[in-house]
Design a protein that fits this description.
Distance between the termini: 56 Å
Radius of gyration: 21 Å
Shape: globular
Helix content: over 70%
Strand content: under 5%
C-alpha cells in the first residue's frame, strides 16, 4: 500500500447478488446524524472489520518500505535532494492524472478496482525487493518503480477513500475515517521500528519483500466481505464532461473549496517529512537507520493520538479547521530549531498529533459535504492536491534542505503552511462580514 498519512484495499455474496452492483439509493442529506457507539463504532460493521484487519498488516508493510526506500536512496546517493526526487516521482502521476482516477472510481465497482490496484502494488514491491537483494539496484530503478507505484495510486486513492462510505454508511463515516487514520498511524509506529531493525540486520531488500507479502492481507479482507451489507452508489455512466462536472460541483460549494485549498498547501509543503527527516538523521544528528526510524515512530505516536481523539468528535467547523492548520504550521516552524535529537523527537510527537487532527478533520468534512454520486471525483481532487503537490514541494524542500540545511527546510515547510492558513482565515472572515452586512436591515 502507499502512503498517505493518512495516509485501503469480489466475490458473489451468499444471496447470489453481484458483488459490486448498485442496488440502493444513497442518503443525500447534508447533515449527518450524531455518531453512535463511541470511538470504535465503525468496527461493529463486519465488512469494515475485514478491511481494517487487512490494513493493519498492509500499512505496516507500507511504512517498512517507505523507510527502507528513503534509506536506500540516501545510501546510494548521500543526497536529501535525491530522496525528494523519489518522493516526487511517486506522486507526480497524481498531480497529472489524479482527477481521471476519480472518474474511474465513480464508473466502476470500487472493491474490484481495489483488488486490482493492491495486487499491482504488491508486484512492484516484489520487483524492488528482487533488485535490492541481488545487488542490482540503482537509483534510477527506484525512481522508475516509484513512478509506476504513483500511477497505480491514481486509481487506488479515490477508490479507497470513497469506498469507506460504502462499507459503513453515512452515520459512521467520520468515525471510520478517523479509525482508518488510527490504523495507518498504528502501523507507522510499528513499521519504521521494524524497518530500522531489518535494514540494520539484513538490508533494505527484505523490508521490500515483507511489504510485497503484506498486500495479501488486504486483498483477503476485500474478498471476505459480504456485498449484501455494503451501501453501493450507482455507477457513473460513460459520458463526456464528467471531469468538468466534478470541478464545477466543488467550485459551487465553499465548504469543499476551502478545506481543499488548505490541504493543497499543507500537503505540498507541510507534510514533506521523508525529505526533511532523512536530512536531520543524516546531516544534523548523525544517527543510524534505527534512530531515523524512531523519528518517524515519534511522529506516528502523535498522529495515532490525534486520530483517536478525532474519532470522538462531531461535525467540524471551518474556523476550527483553519485554526488547527495555523497551529500545525507554527509548531513545525518552532520544532525545526530543536537543539538536540531527543527534544526534536518529542516535539515531532506533537507535530504528528496536530497534523493528523487537521488531516482527518478536512477529509471527513469533504466526504460528508459531498453527494455520494460525486464522491469519487471530489476525493480524487482532494487526494490530487494532498499528494499531487508533492512533486512540486518535494524537490523544492529537498533543494532548500541540501543548500541551507534541514533546519531551514523544515522551518520553511511550517512557515508556508501557517501563512496559507492565515490567508484562508482572513478571506473567510471578510466573506462572513460581507454577508452579514448584506443581510443587515
Amino acid at each position: 500500500m502507499t502512503a498517505l498519512p493518512t495516509a485501503t484495499r469480489g466475490t458473489v455474496d451468499d444471496t447470489g447478488s453481484d458483488a459490486d452492483s448498485p442496488t440502493r439509493t444513497p442518503d443525500r442529506t447534508t447533515s449527518p446524524p450524531p455518531p453512535r457507539g463511541g470511538m470504535f463504532s465503525a468496527l461493529a460493521i463486519p465488512n469494515y472489520r475485514y478491511y481494517f484487519a487487512g490494513q493493519v498488516v498492509s500499512n505496516t508493510g507500507t511504512w517498512m518500505q517507505r523507510i527502507a526506500q528513503d534509506w536506500l536512496v540516501l545510501s546510494l546517493t548521500g543526497s536529501p535532494f535525491a530522496v525528494g526526487i523519489t518522493t516526487a516521482m511517486q506522486f507526480l502521476p497524481m498531480l497529472l492524472f489524479g482527477l481521471y482516477g476519480g472518474v474511474i472510481a465513480d464508473r466502476f465497482g470500487k472493491r474490484r478496482l481495489l483488488i486490482l490496484t493492491q495486487a499491482t502494488m504488491g508486484l512492484l514491491a516484489a520487483v524492488l525487493a528482487i533488485l535490492t537483494l541481488t545487488g542490482a539496484v540503482q537509483v534510477w530503478h527506484v525512481y522508475l518503480l516509484a513512478l509506476l507505484l504513483g500511477t497505480v495510486t491514481v486509481v487506488d486513492n479515490p477508490s479507497r477513500q470513497s469506498f469507506v462510505a460504502e462499507m459503513v454508511g453515512r452515520d459512521r463515516l467520520r468515525n471510520a475515517v478517523s479509525l482508518n487514520s488510527a490504523n495507518f498511524q498504528s502501523a507507522r509506529l510499528i513499521g519504521p521500528a521494524v524497518a530500522g531493525a531489518v535494514i540494520a540486520a539484513v538490508g533494505s531488500g527484505w523490508a521490500f519483500a515483507i511489504n510485497a507479502c503484506s498486500f495479501a492481507a488486504v486483498i483477503g479482507g476485500l474478498l471476505m466481505m459480504r456485498t449484501s451489507q455494503l451501501h453501493p452508489v450507482p455507477r457513473l455512466p460513460r459520458e463526456k464532461g464528467q471531469l468538468r462536472e466534478g470541478l464545477r460541483y466543488v467550485r459551487a460549494h465553499p465548504r469543499l473549496i476551502w478545506p481543499i485549498v488548505l490541504v493543497a498547501f499543507i500537503g505540498t509543503f507541510g507534510y514533506n517529512f521523508p525529505t526533511v527527516l532523512s536530512g536531520y538523521a543524516y546531516h544534523v544528528f548523525h544517527v543510524d537507520a534505527g534512530k531515523y526510524g524512531l523519528l518517524n515512530t515519534a511522529l506516528a505516536v502523535g498522529s495515532l493520538a490525534g486520530a483517536l481523539l478525532a474519532s470522538r468528535r462531531g461535525r467540524v467547523r471551518m474556523n476550527a479547521l483553519v485554526g488547527v492548520a495555523v497551529g500545525f504550521g507554527v509548531l513545525e516552524a518552532v520544532t525545526a530549531f530543536a537543539p538536540e535529537y531527543w527534544l526534536f523527537t518529542a516535539m515531532l510527537t506533537v507535530v504528528g498529533l496536530i497534523g493528523l487532527t487537521f488531516n482527518t478533520s478536512a477529509n471527513s468534512m469533504v466526504q460528508l459535504e459531498t453527494d455520494p454520486a460525486m464522491r469519487g471525483r471530489v476525493m480524487s481532487l482532494y487526494m490530487m492536491v494532498f499528494t499531487g503537490g508533492t512533486p512540486i514541494g518535494g524537490p523544492i524542500v529537498g533543494w532548500v534542505t541540501e543548500q541551507f540545511g534541514p533546519r531551514v527546510g523544515f522551518f520553511g515547510c511550517g512557515a508556508v503552511s501557517a501563512i496559507a492558513a492565515i490567508v484562508v482565515g482572513v478571506v473567510l472572515s471578510r466573506g462572513t462580514r460581507r454577508r452579514a452586512a448584506i443581510a443587515a436591515p
